[in-house]
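Running log. JK asked me to keep both predictions on one page so they can be read side by side. First protein, sequence followed by its tokens:
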Amino acid sequence: MTILEALLLGLIQGITAFIPVSSSGHLAIIENLLHINSETALPYEAFVHLAMLVAVIGALRREIKKLLMEFCRSIYDIYGNIKIYFHNRDKKDARRYKKIVSNNYRKLFLLLVIASFPSVLEEWFLQGMAKLAGENLLAPGMGLFVTGIVLLVADFFPRGKKIPRDISYSAALVIGIIQGFTVIPGVSRLGITLAVCLAYGFQRKFAVKYAFLLAVPVFIGNFITECVHMGSVSFGWQIWGGYAAGALAAGITAYFCIRKVAKILQNKRFYGFSVYCFLIGTAAVAGSFYLA
């Protein structure tokens, strides 16, 4: 992979990661067209996912800070309830326990944790199939068709009003399970997650925030997986420098795209993204037969 290829892939990753058009599908198509070896791309992908993780945390730092603060407070409240339990038992008293899930941010933290477990596990087990699917143009093209159809259907869902306090834990589990299957190139993680959230009646603004925050455990899982599989891969400093440049391009682009894209997704219909997926998917499928 040359520096120019790394920069190109980084820019595409940064732009498409938080748009419901499947960044993995775009990357698979470009890698096939440029004949980029997947083994040499593995260290690059680890760099990129680390950069994307930093970009998400930076762009959503206020929300993440509130989530972590409420998590720490909930741990303190659990500790307080344990003390109350022993006090009531020893003193034959009836002090009231503190409510642990007492606000929307504490509920949101639990919803994110519940959705993350099946999603990360599925991606771990399906990564071999995803890698195989990304070695041709047909699979990403078909995946983009799936994304386009889902986005088109999602536009017909009625506007929901549910915020964290209204969401069931079973809904978060289903969202996580479905999100896990989006490891297949062309199937947009963001697009599918948003569609399922809207189907459950999520308030659109909350659905976008929830889908973006779910990217954090996904990027962490991807980074760890890629580091494990890299093993003893060794390249010269020039190649590592190219990977770092591409990752930097991805991270910077993603950071500036997140906020702007969030506003678009909160207020606009998905029709335009759906049409785009159909067009790119058609081109990819046609290309797979032409290049066969």
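And the second, directly underneath as requested:
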Amino acid sequence: MTVEKLVEIIGADFYTGVPDSQLKALCNYLMHVYGIDSKHHIIAANEGNCAALAAGYHLATGKVPVVYMQNSGEGNIINPAASLLNDKVYAIPVIYIIGWRGEPGVHDEPQHIYQGEVTIKLLEDMDIKSFVIEKDTTEDELRKVMEDFKVLLAQGKNVAFVVKKGALSYDGKVEYKNEYTMIREEIIQHIVRISGEDPIISTTGKASRELFETREANGQGHKYDFLTVGSMGHASSIALGVAINKPQKKVWCLDGDGAALMHMGAMALVGTNAPENMIHIVINNSAHETVGGMPTVAGQIDLTAVAAACGYPNVICVDNFDDLDKELKAAKHRNSLSFIEVKCGLGARDDLGRPTTTPIENKNNFMQCIRE
């Protein structure tokens, strides 16, 4: 099924979402046609944010919006879907397009396995009628489903298209880039060299994969790192919990801009608690690179100003390795909470590996390490 045909059949003129690799064809199409034109397309901070944006759009126009996401985002929409959009509350119609990671029977990463198993059930529990789009789904099938969905939407209900791997295609090409030159994997190598044997909590996506690869290349083992392979946006809160309870250890949080934006309220909690032994690093390439490179708004805001406003006593932004090393060393030897934003280019190795340890092994090794 081509994205163009899907968009035509749905017939909406407003899309908001959080990018997903399973929906890369849709994301690239929206960026090619609309870019970041807020009247037609907004890449939001998290999926609950999308649901609320969709509600505002409907209130203003009376029309039906589309919210796209990876199935991991279903958790973020449960509250607005149940207490705002539902037909027993405000009856605000929304069409969801959901990438099905961890589909049963299809190999995927460990963080997607359980979410994949409950994807359809969660929609059913929220009274959201769904239809699964497969590689062989026909245009006629989709048109028939959409006619049925229109009846439900007219009643103020929500509906969902769940998209299997490879079910959507788009021939257009979109190039994502920024003006910065530092490469994330090299940034992580510098952090590892200076952090030494301090524990690191890293965010989901390629950052954790590159941290794992760096340890492999150094022959260090992986006991120093907690790889937050799922649960996007929560690495800094995990790090805060560790730092508060292990005050004798310097705790590093390796974060991304998309993740920091997703649950930015966590920064207020970190800054207010201000553990003296925590270093929060946000590698900012202004992109959801792990799922394709679609932009975030992090290139248009001042994250260091946000951190300072949240109470971080030491904030700095760097865009070169000399300054990075200087600030990493200063933060390591400082008995005060530090925030370092690192401006980063897009790009990763084509042969970038994935962790070869299981999440349970990672957790147990990390817990044993920080007890020592």
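Observation for JK regarding the second prediction: The mean pLDDT is 96.
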